[in-house]
Design goal:
Largest sheet: 6 strands, antiparallel
Strand content: 15-25%
Order of helices and strands: HHHEEHHHEEEEH
Radius of gyration: 36 Å
Shape: elongated
Distance between the termini: 114 Å
CATH architecture of one domain: 2-Layer Sandwich
CATH topology of one domain: Beta-Lactamase
Helix content: 40-55%
Number of strands: 6
CATH class of one domain: Alpha Beta
CATH superfamily of one domain: PAS domain
Number of helices: 7
Structural class: alpha+beta
Amino acid sequence: MSQPPSANEVVATRPTGTPLADILLSSHLLDAVPDAMVAVESDGTIVQINSQAMEMFGYTRQELLGQKIEVLVPERYRPQHGGHRASFAQNPKVRRMGAGLELLGRRRDGAEFPVEISLSPVSIGNRTLVLSAIRDITDRKEIEAELQHANDELDRRTAYEATAEAQEPCEVTFLRQSDVLRMMRAHGEFALWATQRLSHD
């Protein structure tokens, strides 16, 4: 299976006079990027995606072109996402989207999955496109959950052992007191027996 051309190869082979926008939005160029890529206009309209994005979200290119980017966002988050998008359009800069937040993508079948998104504005003439690099971090989240579970289990076992060790001296003291009581009882019985024996003698 042949590999897609690199980004440099695509630009280097650009025919003379081909608009830069056409190059940047070329499916060949975007397919050379390992991440899922979605290019949108400042109003959120999808103008290009690569094959990795199609595989990730389960859509064909024709189904997504012309749609708003919110189609890839869970429905409950779409209203606020529109506001975030408008805010980014006023001050576009390269940055990670939703730093510190849990972001979710929505597949064509409605399934949701955790994602990490980086935004890169690209000015072309009087247009500003936003390239979104999207990563499915499901595997990372599963590993983090397993590590958290292991840490919680370790904390639970450590706390249990610490409690057991703290109780051990009390148990030893209790046993020693019991031994003393038995010794005192035995001594008392012996004294009584000795007294009775001497009285008989």
